[in-house]
Structure formats: C-alpha cells, structure tokens
Amino acid sequence: MRAKNNLHTPSIPLLICSLLFILTGIITIATASPAFALNEGFSSNHYLIHQLLFGFLPGIFLGVLAFLIPLDFIKKYALGFFLISYLLMFSVFVPGIGICEGGACRWANILGFNFQPVEFLKLTTIIYLGALFSSEKIKNPVINFAIIIGLIVLALFLQSNLSTLITIFLIAVAILFSSNTKMKDVLIIGVCGIILFCGMVFTSPYRMERVMTFLDPLSDTLGDAYQINQSLISIGSGGINGSGLGLSAQKFGFVPESMSDSIFAIYAEELGFLGCAFLVLLLVSFAFYSIKTAKKTTPFGKLLAVGICTWIVSQSFINISAMSGLMPLSGTPLPFISYGGTHLVIELAALGLLLNISRSVNNEKNNI
Amino acid sequence: MKLKDLKDKKIIIVGFGREGKNTYKTLKKLFPLKGIALADKNLILADEKEIYSGENYLENIDKYDVIIKTPGIPYGQIKEKSGKAKITSQTELFLENCPGKIIGITGTKGKSTTTTLIYKILKDHFKNIKLVGNMGRPCLSYLLTAKPKDIFVFEMSCHQLDHISKSPNISVFINIYPEHLDYYRTFSKYFNAKKNIAKFQNKNDFFVYNPKFEEIKNIKTKAHKIPFEEQSFFKKNIHEDSIAAAVVVSKIFGLTEKEIKKSIDNFKTLDSRIEFVGTFSGINFYNDSLATIPEATIFALNELKNIDTLILGGLDRGIQFTKLTDEIKKREINNIILFPNSDRKIYKEIKNEKINFFFTSKMKDAVQFAIKNTKRGGTCLLSPAAPSYNLFKNYKDKANQFKKYLKNESKK
Fold this sequence. Notes:
The complex is a heterodimer of chains A (368) and B (412).
Chain A: H1 2-6, H2 12-39, H3 46-68, H4 71-76, H5 78-91, E1 98-101, E2 104-110, E3 113-115, H6 117-134, H7 141-158, H8 162-178, H9 183-202, H10 205-215, H11 226-238, H12 263-295, H13 299-323, H14 341-367
Helix pairs in contact in A: 2-3, 2-12, 3-14, 5-6, 6-8, 6-13, 6-14, 7-8, 8-9, 8-13, 11-12, 12-13, 13-14
Chain B: E1 11-14, H1 18-30, E2 37-40, E3 51-53, E4 66-69, H2 75-82, E5 86-89, H3 90-97, E6 101-106, H4 111-125, E7 129-133, H5 140-143, E8 151-155, H6 158-161, E9 170-173, H7 181-184, H8 187-199, E10 206-209, H9 214-217, E11 224-227, H10 240-252, H11 257-265, E12 275-280, E13 283-287, H12 294-303, E14 307-312, H13 322-330, E15 335-338, H14 343-350, E16 356-359, H15 363-373, E17 379-382, H16 395-411
Parallel strand pairs in B: 1-2, 1-4, 2-3, 4-5, 6-8, 6-9, 7-8, 9-10, 10-11, 13-17, 14-15, 14-17, 15-16
Antiparallel strand pairs in B: 12-13
C-alpha cells in the first residue's frame, strides 16, 4: 500500500508536452485530411472523425489506464505482454486475418478492427527490455539482448518493415546504454546492428532504389523521386510563416500519402519554418523532460522512460528527415500527427505510462 | 498489341486520310516487304495489291487479323462487319508501344489551349518534349524513334479515346459538354469514350481533373487524382481551366509556381480566343468564331459588355440551345444575325418582338446588317455556338471572312 499513497502529481512539463502533441495532431489531421477525403468521395471530415473516434478516443482512454496502473504490475507481466504482441505479429500471415498491400503484410483484422501489430511490439519491447535490464539477476546481457533482437528481426523481416526495425533497434540500444551494461558490449551490438542494416538494404531491390533516389533526387521526376520532390516543393513553399492553416496547395493530390507518412510536408507548407521550429522544439523539450524524469526514478522506470523517449523522438526525426530529403524515404508515421489509429493509440498509451513514471519521481522527492 | 506482334498478321488500314496515311507509312518502314490492305470510301492511290474503296469499302474487312481504324469512322460501323478481326487504332498502338511518358489531354473545350500550354511550359524546362495528335504530327510518326526519356504531349479527342485499352501516364480531363452527338447519339456514350483516358491508369500515373464537373470527379482510376481548380494563380482569365490544368501538370514535373508563371507570361497568343477585331463606325467588333458550342458562347457573353448585336448559328448537331437562349433573353441584345441550319431552332426558342432577327448565309450580308443596325458605342460579337463546316471551310475561314468584310464595309 506504500506505493499507492506516495504517488502524487505527474511532471507538469511532460503533461503540457503531451497535450500539445494531441492538439497538434488533431489540428494537422483536420487540415490535411479533407482534400484526401473529397478525392476519395467521402465527406470532408470523414478521416478527422475516424481519427478522433478510433485514434484519439481509445488512445486517451488507454493512456489514462497506463497512467493509473501500478508500475510493479507492468514489470511483473512484461514478458507476457511481449510474447502476446510478438505472436500477434504473425497474425498478419494468417489467411482471413492478415491484410497484404503492395507486397507487404502489415495489417491484421481481428473482430472487425484493422490494426498494425508492429505498433504494439514497439511498446512491449520497451517494457520487456526495461524489466529485463533493470533486474539485477541478469548475467549475460549481450546474449539476452541478441536473442530478443533476433526474434524481432525475424518478425519484421517477414513483414519487410525495415524502418520500424531501425526504430526498435535504436530504442533497444538506448535502453541497453542506460542500464548497467558495459560500454564495450553496447559498442559491439551497435556495430552488429549497422552490418545487419546494410545487409538488408543491399539484398532488397526496392530499398536500393530508394537509396539511389535519395542520392540523386532529380533522376526521375515522375517515378521514384516523385514523392521526395513534391515533398520538398511543399516544405519549400511554406517559407517562414507558411501559407496558413488549411491553405496548402500541395495536399490536393500532389504529395502522395499526404495524410499519413507525408503529413509533415503539408504541416510544413501550411505553418512554415516557424511551425516546424515549434514541432522540433516540442520534441526536444519532450526529450529533455523525459530524460529528467528518467534520472530521478526507479531503475525500471528509468529504462522505460528512456525507451519511450527514444522511440517518439527517433521516429519523429526519421520521418521528418525522410520528408526533407536528409534520409532515404521510409514508411514510418509521424508520431501523434500522421493518420492511423494503431500507432496513435499506442503512442498515447506510452505517454500515459511516461506520466505514470514521472509520478514516482515526485513521490521520491516528497519522501526526502 | 505490340508492334512486333503485327509482323505475322494480315493487316488492313481502314480510313486513308491524314492519320491512315501516316499509319501506312510507319508500318511500311517497320515491315518493308509486308503487304498491307487499305480501305476508304474515297479512291486510294497506293502501291498495294489489296485496296478497297467506294461505298462498300468495309465489306471485306473480316478477312483480316487486325483492323487499324482511323478516328473518323465510328467504331460500331466497323464492329458490325469485322467478324473475328481485332480492331485497334493509331492511338492505341502508340499508347501500348511508346517507351516514353505520355501526357494525354481531353475535354470538350480548351483541349488545344491546354495542350499547347503544357507543351510550351515543359519545353522551357526540359528537352525531349514532343507535341503529338491533332496539334502536332500524328503519333505513330514518333513511335519508331521514341526513347524512354521522351515526353509526349498528346491532345486526344473522344474518337481517339474510343475503345482504347491503355491510358496515358498523365491524363488531363478539362471539361465535358454535350458535343459530337451526331457521332455518339447519347451523352453517356460520348462520356464513356472519354473516360478511357483514366480507366487503365495504374497507381504510378496521374489523373488531373476539373472538380467542377461531378461526372469527371467520380471517374474511377488507380492513379493519383489531382483536381486543378484550387491551384490556379491566374484567376479571371478566359483560359482559367486550361491554365490551371497546365499548372498542375507542370507541378507534377517538379516545376515551381515561379517557373510556370514565367513560361505562361511568355505565351502571349493565349489571349486571342475572344479577339478584338477593331472599332468600325463606332462599333466594337469581336471575333469568337472558335465558340462551336453554346457553353462557349455563354462564356463570351459573360466576358463582354454592351453586346448589342450577336452573330449566331451554323451546323445543327442536334444539341439543345435552351441554356444559351435563356442567357440571351436575360440581356438587352437588340439584333441577332443567324446562319443556317441551326438558325430556325435558335429563333424559335428566343422569339422576341423587340429583337431584330436577320437570317443569312453570307458573311457579307451579316456584316452589312451589323454595321447598319448596331447602336454606336455598342458591341457586335461573332460567336456561333455551332460549327461552321456547312458554310465555311472551318472556324478560321469564318473569322477571316468576318474581318475581310468588316474592313471592306468600313471603307465605304
């Protein structure tokens, strides 16, 4: 009963960051989705309503749940969570449940709900790694780590989802780095990761193509380079102030995936450099306060906070870099902002968890 | 159908006009020793064994494996007699065999302007841009030398789009009004022919369309759909739609608004559809002889002020004039000059005692009447709302006669 009594207010800056993420997400979907909806023959607010009903609403509900649940409970069942979500990863290959699109099977349909199991895996991997590396009994961290990552590589390789693999790998290395593992081991794992990554790029023709397009974006303006060129035009025409909310010209079909993966291009066009600076600043403050929280909490809470922070921030920057031509294109959503229910629900749940962790910080302070 | 598959087939070219001759020339270059049959209503002068002409020129087409038809001959007429033969056309052969990128432009009005604009803008920024179809050379003349990096700007009429099985990489659909009903009889048939421009596109292609037309907006295609209304920075121009469409296509090629604007500004001839001919006897004369459908004439009525005399009429193609006559009734137009054979139809629908009607088939009389009756300071507009083939060679001939007689009459 001790824990319950000592939990008090969560970190206020993190709460503000969370609310700003939600607000930015709603506004951006509201302005980016009507053009897309009308083109598909739906009413203009079709996707906004869908995102509110199947993204924000369940996400906030799950976030509150994650905020209230005792951390010890999560730690206790970490392995269970991980295994369930890992098994779900294979549901996409089950006929009648899995949905394949453009050569990749990443969606599952269970009880009428379409979702991407990989999003669950991101969060459960963080929880499981956090639980594993915060326990003092762990003897051989590198081998344990290699087994877990090996399992994840297998699942993601089958879904041919390299961009998520990179995100999960970054998260895992960050957790490893923050735990009591030796520096030498972290380095070995990092190098192995890079070798694996190169191997996956060179063995897949479409990834090679994306890399080649990245190196020479003007090569084929109608083919592979089309998306990145249009995205750059979009970001560039935003200027300092942007064209104004709702006034993007590029969202009317020029930028492919303008509501999901490429939503940053539309955001940048409408809100300009200042809007982008705001988003980057928001991410940086989020990182700052997450790490601050991590420093003052229990070992498990620390690793969880580092993991969640690395996840949100790295995935955001992977998306933004890809859209602005600093990295080859990849199909990662922009956390909190891109259209799509699954990633939003899980990200909001993670925010709830982070705020939950930040409560135990305050509680330690109070004890002193 | 791939070109190399034609090698062992018995081929007949049906229709030996400009396009038919071009098809023949191209096929001869490709297969110099192969005999190719030709069929046309008119006499054909060619060094071939199998030639069919005269009224029954379609009688033997079922003896061939492949029929290459020209756009002028209705599909149904050929299908009736073709038996098991495969019917194709120059346009279809080009679409199926061209290694380069094709931009296809269709619509009822503004096709030529849009095609020219796209061609001019892209030409300012890229090499390898070719103009094909009605405006440029027939498409097959380019096929044998076409390279993957070439870009073809292709104006496509509904006749060319009829029964094709492949769509262009970028399709532009400007607008749709009931025209050509003499050939297609019903609007839906005409529209179905045009829809082919997007029907066979895949997800890497682009469909650029006018969202003001519900029918066009609802066309099903796998391509990226981009509406062009919202992007125009040249509003209030009579070529608004054409410019907006051209802007979208140029943007797809990665050009910026600044670059596009510069190219459009350089393209001056654009303003000459409603052409100010001059002031004679205090009357302002305008020529809009390219307006061959009622919508175009309504457009001109909205553009100009003080219209006192309107010159209307031409070949009757079975379309309704009620929209136009309603617009005319709303205005204070005092004189209407009518050319046959749509003259009676228009007259019946307006029937107003205050209006001075004048029926003629001679441009000279029309001009004399206009000068005599139009009030000073008023405007006289030539905007037929119908084609001019029955009395004049084409719209250009009509315009030239209009200008010629105006100058002669004003000298007197």
